[in-house]
Amino acid sequence: MNEPVPGTFRDPGRPIAARIADLLGRLTVEEKLGLLHQYQAAVPRLGIGAFRTGTEALHGPAWLGPATVFPQAIGLASTWDPDLVRSVGAATGDEVVAFHRKDPAAAGLNVWAPVVNPLRDPRWGRNEEGYSEDPWLTGVMGTAYARGLRGDHPTLKTAPTLKHFLAYNNESDRCVTSSNLPPRVLHEYELKAFRPAIAAGAAVSLMPSYNLVNGRPATLSPLINDVVRSWTDEDLLVVSDAHAPANLTGSQAYYADPAEACAAAVRAGLDSFTQDDDRPGDTLRHLRTALDRGLLTEADVDTAARHALAIRFRLGEFDPGTPYDDITEAVVNRPEHQALARRAAAQSIVLLKNDGILPLGEPSRVAVIGPLADTLMEDWYSGTLPYAVTAHAGLAERCVTEFHEGVDRVALHAPGGLVTAGQDFGGAPLAVGAAPDPRLTWFDLFDWGGGAYALRAVANGRYVTAGDDGVLVNDQPGPNGWEVRQTFRLDERPRGTVVLRHISTGHHVGLVDGTLRLTGDPDAAAVLTMELVESGAQAAAELAAGADVAIVVAGDHPLVNGRETEDRTGLGLPPAQEALLRAVHAANPATVLVISSGYPFAVTWAEDNVPAILWSSHGGQEYGHALAGVLFGDEDPGGRLTQTWYRSARELPDLFDYDIIATDSTYLYYRGTPLYPFGHGLSYTRFTYSDLSLSHTTAGPGDVLTVRVTVANTGERPGSEVVQLYTHQRRSRVKQPLRQLRGFERVRLAPGESRVVTMAVDIEDLAFWDVTRGRFVVEEAPHKVQVGRSARDIRLSARFTVAGERVPARDPYARPLDAADNDEYDGIVLCDAARAAGDAVRGTDAGGWIAFREVGFLDGAASCALTVASSEGGVLTLRLGDPLFGTVVGAVSVAPSMDRYDLVTVGCPLAGAAGTHDLYVVFENAGVTVSRLEFTPVAAVPVAPETAPAREAAHGVTGGAR
């Protein structure tokens, strides 16, 4: 690279804005376009090197080789310790810098973490990547982790990127499904999780998600420029998710022309295209075409380039030095980081149930059982484990242990003989025939739930995979990679036989010339008889029967049945693991269930029968030490759940329904009895709460309510308590949460020790989004403060009144009624009113409706102008009071449109629309879209001369002009 060129942009004493402007002024249009891709081109003539966005760092550096592996993000949040989470972020940031110093091309300083999508539904395949179902707690933890990543100096250590904006909580068809997001859910739930880290300056970048929101690709969301950028005075870098730009003309078919799509993305706020890996040519050509065709201006390019450069300036790239220049490879997995990993793992462990069996004394013999008992799992965004302390290894350091994996060992009989595997470490194609040693025909069968199984050959301890040529080979360490090729379904056939179906390809396993290989012809599948060589449950039960205590470690494989690209369909433990647990408990009632997973399980049988249950996420390299410390009582189990554990998936709404308010979802609105509530977690000691006091009995916007409570350890052991503060608005114009987390504090108390815990609630944070006026409102209403150990274990409560404002009846004459701002609905979806901006409502069922509560028509409305479209045509009816039996005040026919964006204004005369009523717009036919309704009061109707619309209305003619 050429020597650096002197200039204002290299002067650290000048403001960053001036430095950026200077550098932009030196760049050609082509050079500025080159900044708009993940792989930013070097500018040798100015001595500027290449730059790459996107280093994964969700819970430690990923994909860069051995590095400290901390607990998964859901586990970090379960510590309820923002300072600890920030420390983990700082350690991760240090290690990213070290990798960058070693190889700048492989490890960039723009990190794609944290993930702040609220965990709305526990079936989401990427549940382990988020922090909580509560948006405020998500914001707290995301901000803490991002602060650690960015460092404490004005110069950024790394540049954290929030993922994934917006309403992204399903993997099934994630690139083509649209998240239905009403305004209240948008403002009170989704945006609330993203704002804190950006507003605090902790995160400096944003990644839009793959999905659509209200019919529009999130990559093109107008909220990026209109809302998110308003949260900060700094330049925010917006990077696309991998290959998402191509979806605009591909799977989403939102634009037919790549240049048009790229231009729309830049105008919507996208600054960096993550497309085609390190081959930016096509993207830059599309952008250049967009410029040439006038779809983009050079000012648009300058804006995006400025955002890209701003991050590089803030990282100190153009300074003589940075505060992080002494960071070397020595920080990677250093002893301090190992200790931090152990501390984080220990504090993340949640004690779900305990009948007194824990903490363990000094048992002479412990049976350690289960498919996760002597292994540690890496998820897709994990780093490579530098070492692994498994549950078995950690316990073996403390007591005498015996181990059994608890999985079935089987042999597969095929036409012509038994399926055999190669005994060399590199494996061999699976073949059918005779084997000199029966162990060559044995396979361990792992059940990972959802009908997904993996086979491990006893011959060499390696897993069976389908190679690129379709041949089955036993040469893998386990399920792995982006495209997991080591899992199969067992499709039943008559007389107890099965065929294997490869999950990744959907192809069956056939037999060709004595070798097992994939076939696209289901009729050519090899019919197999599965012989049980050893029952894992029976062998484990026999082992457990002779032990003082049995520890069963169960859970998920992070790459199977719930991962990126794959949601779960249920919440149960894998059937074989459930059977294992029951068999072990029958043999030894002193059984402890330890769950290691990235998501909740519906362990209802265990809750009813097993004396103790613990949960943690996959805990990283120090998991075994942390678990042993908690089981033996060195550590009080300090973790608390950050999402609800349900008894069954039947208690959940449709996975694709994002309206948590309408569906009574998450702890905020859920009315049932959960298996374990939000905030739940037990201790080895007892805590009592007393002397709850409030600083105000009446407070208004601008006030801060101070809550004080005394917490005492009345047990015989030291312990950690997470004191949780919730509020509930007891009267409102709208449906309010049943309880909502407002604060928490972790306290550690010795036996007999007490402490006054003080927490503050900003009254303005009690606001809800008022759809009648399009803003947040603090409503005049009585409220309740609730303090306790979880959302359902409330120990004390007190009441106070908020002196806010009263929400008046809707004034239909002051502003149009936007259809998306309805109060309630049925049989509709939210959709895009235009490609660039605006939401509308489309009827999906005949008889669907939207409701506007308390519309003040005063002396009467003479007419309504509806902005509508319909591909097939249809009828809309306006009713008062009820969508089926209410008074009809108007009806309008909607003519077929050229396309769904061909919105026209249709006039509708009204009769009887006077006073204050609930207004229903009823979709008599599916397929009609409504954007807004504009009402004209009776007094505003001119008498003469008669207008064309009035003449048409008088003669029953409906229609409209564009």
Automatic annotation (TrEMBL):
Keywords for the protein's UniProt record, in alphabetical order: Hydrolase, Signal
Keyword presence, Hydrolase: yes
One protein family per Pfam: Glyco_hydro_3_C
Highest taxon in the source lineage: Bacteria
Keyword Signal among record annotations: yes
CBM6 domain sequence ranges: 815-936
PROSITE patterns in alphabetical order: CBM6 (PS51175)
GO molecular function list: hydrolase activity
Family that this chain belongs to: Belongs to the glycosyl hydrolase 3 family.
UniProt protein name: Glycoside hydrolase family 3 C-terminal domain-containing protein
Organism: Sphaerisporangium corydalis
